[in-house]
Automatic annotation (TrEMBL):
<dbReference type="InterPro" id="IPR006254">
    <property type="entry name" value="Isocitrate_lyase"/>
</dbReference>
<feature type="active site" description="Proton acceptor">
    <location>
        <position position="221"/>
    </location>
</feature>
<keyword id="KW-0456">Lyase</keyword>
<dbReference type="Pfam" id="PF00463">
    <property type="entry name" value="ICL"/>
</dbReference>
<dbReference type="GO" id="GO:0004451">
    <property type="term" value="F:isocitrate lyase activity"/>
</dbReference>
<protein>
    <recommendedName>
        <fullName>Isocitrate lyase</fullName>
    </recommendedName>
</protein>
<keyword id="KW-0460">Magnesium</keyword>
<feature type="binding site">
    <location>
        <position position="183"/>
    </location>
    <ligand>
        <name>Mg(2+)</name>
    </ligand>
</feature>
<dbReference type="GO" id="GO:0046872">
    <property type="term" value="F:metal ion binding"/>
</dbReference>
<dbReference type="InterPro" id="IPR015813">
    <property type="entry name" value="Pyrv/PenolPyrv_kinase-like_dom"/>
</dbReference>
<dbReference type="GO" id="GO:0019752">
    <property type="term" value="P:carboxylic acid metabolic process"/>
</dbReference>
<dbReference type="InterPro" id="IPR040442">
    <property type="entry name" value="Pyrv_kinase-like_dom_sf"/>
</dbReference>
<dbReference type="InterPro" id="IPR039556">
    <property type="entry name" value="ICL/PEPM"/>
</dbReference>
<keyword id="KW-0479">Metal-binding</keyword>
Amino acid sequence: MSQYNQDIEAIKALREKMTGWDAINPEYVARMRAQNRFKTGLDIAKYNAAIMRQDMAEYDKDHSQYTQSLGCWHGFVGQQKIISIKKHFGTTNKKYLYLSGWMVAALRSEFGPLPDQSMHEKTSVPALIEELYTFLKQADAWELNHLFRDLDAAREAGDSAKEKEVQDKIDNFETHVVPIIADIDAGFGNEEATYLLAKKMIEAGACALQIENQVSDAKQCGHQAGKVTCPHDEFMAKINACRYAFLEMGVEDGVIVARTDSLGAGLTQKLAVTKEPGDIGDKYNSFLACDPIEKPEDIDNGDVVIKRDGQLMRPRRLPSGLFEFQEGTGEDRVVLDCVNSLKNGADLLWIETEKPHVGQIAGMVNRIKEEVPDAKLVYNNSPSFNWTLNFRQQVFDAWKEEGKDVSEYDYNDLMNAKYDGSELAKVADQWTAEFQRRGSAEAGIFHHLITLPTYHTVALSTDELAKGYFGEPGMLAYVDGVQRQEIRKGIATVKHQDMAGSNIGDDHKEYFSKDNALKAGGKDNTMNQF
């Protein structure tokens, strides 16, 4: 017996025991329960953590089984994304949402638009998680409401075949509630601050927390200069804080994504504490740019001196007080970061790179797998990359190495529109289309995400509408470019009253008031034109 029918029978039995409950329809209760499957954010976090763990296990067996997400900065955007996925693919399997700290800073801060430097209110992060799940739960209620109406219509028409078909859809309904990988930045403070924020995010529904090894009070966007990393012990303390938060809240299989920015970070705020040669602190300090101390006079006032490989060394310190790493050590630091994170509680890795290059990513991941064979990546298919230029240059380089004539192409001007129809451009586009598949097969990428795509799509679509509506086309710009496209493509928002919950409210009024219900969906509702 399906959960829907179990609920009907349970409420029937309960109604018989209670006095004055004759007006309560057990099937209506079952419908409302189905429309509100998840009662708390913790219910959501536990449900989705299990899904992620299953997806990770399936990826370990078959690298073609990777997962994907798009960053969403508003609950409605996330909702429409998942509705679209269900419409086009019939399932949400292996499709997640990503909560981008960049977009929270740029779009959700009370200070107004901010750069990605952890200056926004940290409470806005769990608030967005809660908002996203509120809209995803409403998508469940919306789709089920249509199914309930179809069920009633089939019964009224005496169409038993249709009734069974609709009932099967209700009984096997797939929720819109999917995992969110949520960006906790560098933890917004010390390890206690990280723990407190992690709890709020988990309570809101987060099953996966992504935390980076930058210094919290010097945080920079991963695709900007000036990044400063912290020693491993400090980062491990924050990973532990996240794990304790998951365990305290009862989400025992919660997922932690450890991000390293070491590939592009040339600075550290602190020297690592080391107790013996070769420990993790000593390895961190081994990457510092230092000058040897030959005699006491080599030490200036205020200098810091360390002993490394039996030699007194003076780390190079900038006027800011930050210390420099040796040039060319980025990849080695990335590998050490990743191995150490996986051995100390992290489940997945995030390596922030400067370009989308499968070979570069695979080179680092293969080194990591020498020590942790099942290492897996969450990878940022970032809009900060010029994907067109990057892949055209990659094709150019490959062709040149093969000995193919590339004289008709200017390497430094490959973004030029004159190349758009060229053979090189077509191959580059093909490589771009294959990037996710190749990255997962060859470079250990379990999850592909785009951090802030909807930031760009909103800007692009708004530009198109504004250009036309305020120009010569006028109202036709909206009708042809938006409304008619919604109708032709079956976009549910064309009936925006329904999407916002008007029909759900009407049906609930009928549950509560029966024939006395004052409903919005009558003959005078202009939505009936669609």
